[in-house]
Amino acid sequence: MRRNMKLTISLIIVNVVLYLAMLIFGNRFGPYKYLIFGAQYGPLVSQGQWFRIVTALFVHGGILHIAFNMYALYQLGYIIETVYGRWKMLVIYFASGIAGNIATQFFYYNTLSVGASGAIFGLAGALFITGYKEETAHYMRSLAMSVLPMILINVIYGFIPGSHINNAAHIGGLAMGLLLGKLIPAGGYSYYVSMPEMIKNIFRKDFWTSPWYQFQRREVIWFLISMAFVILAIVSFIYLIITDIIMLSH
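RESULT FIELD:
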């Protein structure tokens, strides 16, 4: 397994496990299968089920859908996790996915929407904009430029009638990825400090005042932001389970 991709592999595992659960148990719910497992549907979101904007990131519509997305996540996640660090990668992933699903809420209001495409396009956008940063190494510039054809082909194909592609999620996620890739500095301390030590540092008095820890403090802040997204995802699925229980009991 490639080094420096623990979070990428973790995200892939979560997506695959949820997809397998839907394959095993989904048929008993008939046409409501995707909604039970967290798909986004505009009218339901407007009625207060905001959590679907998050849970839909982990739901996929078929074997080809999840296979393509997980392959793209494996390739792009590895690069972003290496270049930016795991915590920044997680922030880019969640923020882009949520931005894509918010765009979906406006442009595909009456359409069922699932998939991690918005988040993956966010990673692609962050990688692409990295090629324009002055501090980016020369070999990384050519790698960053290599994602442009993939971005253009998928966006253009999404505008073809009958493609059944949610271009709002793609473009919304891409826009957020470009923005975050521009604003977030590359590099990360996360590969030199384990998560337990990272948490331990948060409670050290001198950690927040000593100039020796200036770089590490910035990384801890990214860690805290990324954990906020993780907590948001957990809370979203808890709300989804509660909603499912209420719906199925009637």
